[in-house]
Here is the input.
Amino acid sequence: MNIIRDDHVPANSGWGAPIEKGQVLRLTAMTIIDFVCLNLHDLDERFDQARTKVHDGKIWITEGDRLVSKRDNVMMTIIRDDFAGTGFHDLQYGTCSGPRFARAAAEGRLNQYHHGDDIPVPDHGCWENLQDALCARWGVPKEFIPSPINIFQHVEIDTETGAISHSPVRPATPICVDLRAEMDLVVAASACPDLAAPEFGQPIRATIYQP
Ligand SMILES: [Zn+2]
Here is the structure.
């Protein structure tokens, strides 16, 4: 394995990098990672939650499944998923954000995030972290940041009512997901201020390697 880069991403911060076709991004964490990718050579082509679900034929994706753009092109393939057997990565929710947490606190609903109402409310979240990763360096307007795949975020889905809810299911120790780039990409990840993770958020590790 030839390591291209290996970055520590502090809790509740963003990270972004280019990756070449054929290289692999390894994300290692025990917290939620909001993840998106864009075509390096045409940033208008972006990861799309809906296309991904249609192409893979499921709402939970794992090893062997693909991340797909709105133009129906395969952007990445999951080649390793250590979360399998513990939970599923989420393709329903968007990003958390400062205003989202503030509204939940004002409405007395922070307990939906599994640590009650007496917790420090993050002043920013994955929405702001992905902006830090993408907007200045790559010139991506914040409104163009796609809704992510939320890695290590297991969501309960009631198939009778369609209700979705957060769950506290997380990796017990830092584990990996490996995604192979199927085109040259910009990849971006947020270390979520995850209220179900120890200390309400954990650092993540982002490694790019040439297999
Ligand atoms: Zn988040």
